[in-house]
Design a protein that fits this description.
By secondary structure, this protein is α+β, with helices and mostly antiparallel strands. The chain folds into 2 domains: 2-49; 66-191, Immunoglobulin-like (Sandwich), CATH 2.60.40. It has 3 helices and 10 strands; from the N terminus they run H-H-E-E-E-E-H-E-E-E-E-E-E. The protein has helices at 2-30, 33-49, 114-117, and strands at 66-69, 74-84, 88-97, 103-104, 127-130, 135-138, 155-156, 161-169, 177-181, 188-191. It has a 4-stranded antiparallel beta sheet with strand order 1-2-3-8, with no helix packed on it. It starts with a helix and ends with a strand. Mean pLDDT is 78; it is low at 22-61. Residues 40-55 have a biased composition (Low complexity). Residues 29-62 are annotated as: Disordered. This is Secreted protein.
Length: 194
């Protein structure tokens, strides 16, 4: 019994020594975090200067090209609608709460398709309508059925903005003017840039 006890005690001592060594290593490696603080605060202040909108991609302006008004002060401001070479259109913008109180993002924004509903609150119910071609384009999905749009939307505080994106199949090359529709929001005309 004495041999078994001393073997367990040695194993415990070795485990304690390894854990202590790892803890010291983590603490000593973690000390360099002060060097990175100016970078993160510089980028945070840069994003504050630009507002809470999405980051600018390829020199696009942050001025809205379209606005869709929703219930209780929700507002979707579209900042770009770009045709990509891969055969899709990416719509970027910000979801804003212009109301006086915080709001729960309506689950209706995700639409009612079973495959999209399984992945939580999103903008999966959005559509692009080509009035000339008389076609409606639904949000693209990945191989697991997740919508290619901003997901995980829960609540939005009064005055808060959340950067959002939505990807659709691209209409034919000659089609530049479409209508963006989002459940519970007004519709808005969009011009797709190439």
């Amino acid at each position: 019994m004495n041999i078994g006890f001393s073997a367990r005690a040695r194993r415990g001592a070795v485990a304690l020594a390894i854990a202590t060594g790892l803890a010291v290593g983590v603490v000593s490696c973690g000390g360099g975090g002060d060097d990175k603080k100016p970078e993160s605060s510089a980028s945070a202040s840069a994003s504050k200067n630009n507002g809470s909108g999405p980051s600018t991609q390829e020199g696009q302006s942050q001025d809205p090209i379209a606005e869709l008004r929703g219930q209780d002060g929700l507002l979707l401001q579209v900042t770009s609608a770009d045709r990509d070479s891969g055969g899709f259109v990416t719509v970027n913008g910000v979801l804003k709460n212009d109301g006086a109180k915080s709001l729960v993002i309506p689950s209706g924004l995700r639409g009612d398709e079973t495959e999209i509903v399984q992945h939580g609150t999103s903008l999966g119910g959005a559509t692009l309508v080509d009035p000339k071609g008389k076609k409606r384009y639904y949000v693209l999905r990945d191989t697991d059925g997740r919508p290619l749009t901003t997901t995980g939307l829960t609540t939005i505080q009064s005055g808060q903005t959340i950067p959002v994106f939505i990807q659709f199949p691209a209409p034919p090359e000659g089609t530049a003017e479409v209508t963006l529709q989002l459940p519970t929001f007004s519709s808005a005309p969009l011009k797709i840039s190439d």
